[in-house]
Amino acid sequence: MRRSFLYNDDRYPMAFSVLRQCPSCGSKNRIPARHLSDSGRCGVCKSPLPPQNEPIEVDDSAFDEITREAKVPVLTDFWASWCGPCRAAAPEVQAVAKETAGKALVLKVNTEEHPQLSARFGVQSIPNFVVLRDGKVVLQRPGLAPRSEMRRWLEA
């Protein structure tokens, strides 16, 4: 019996990846964490694939892998669905992800679903934004912020 090296259990955890649809042929392409900020090519039609340009909802393990592997700054939005200011910030966060594609990554952490990750960063009020470079916190700000300010955080 031949064994595959791609397991999805506790003994052999799979690496985090995002499925991105090719804009040309519609095929799904698996993009590993370390290449989320890179341009690539579709595995089927070889058309260009742009870098990640939308916020990524993450859990603890995906957060750790992406922030460890990222070649660019990572803006993390700690939020909850019941939070009015969080809902107001969502379009701004989405716009920042589009505007900074290839130069930054944007993650979203639902504080209700992942309280241990929120606790790790001392999040006591939401929305709460954390910028990481090389896996280290370089800035943390609670409260609503305009996208121009979020871009400045990533460029600083």
Structure write-up:
- α2 packs across α4.
- The protein has helices at 60-69, 84-99, 115-120, 147-155, and strands spanning 17-21, 28-32, 40-41, 48-49, 56-57, 74-79, 105-110, 128-133, 136-142.
- The strands form 3 sheets. It has a 5-stranded mixed β-sheet. It has a two-stranded antiparallel ribbon with strand order 1-2.
- Helices cover 26% and strands 26% of the residues.
- It has 4 helices and 9 strands, in the order βββββαβαβαββα.
- The relative contact order is 0.15.
- Mean pLDDT is 91; it is low at 1-12.
- The chain has a domain at 51-155: Glutaredoxin.
- The protein is an alpha/beta fold and 156 residues long.
Poorly predicted runs of 5 or more residues: 1-12
Highest-level CATH class of the domain at 51-155: Alpha Beta
Gross CATH architecture of the domain at 51-155: 3-Layer(aba) Sandwich
Choose one word for the global shape: globular
Mean pLDDT: 91
Helix content: 25-40%
Number of strands: 9
Biggest sheet strand order reads: 5-7-6-8-9
Terminal Cα separation, in Å? 54 Å
N-to-C SSE string, H for helix and E for strand: EEEEEHEHEHEEH
Compute the number of helices. 4
Oligomer: single chain
Q: Characterize the main sheet.
A: 5 strands, mixed
Radius of gyration: 16 Å
Strand fraction equals 25-35%
Which fold name fills CATH's third level, the topology of the domain at 51-155? Glutaredoxin
What structural class is derived from the secondary structure elements? alpha/beta
CATH superfamily of the domain at 51-155: Glutaredoxin
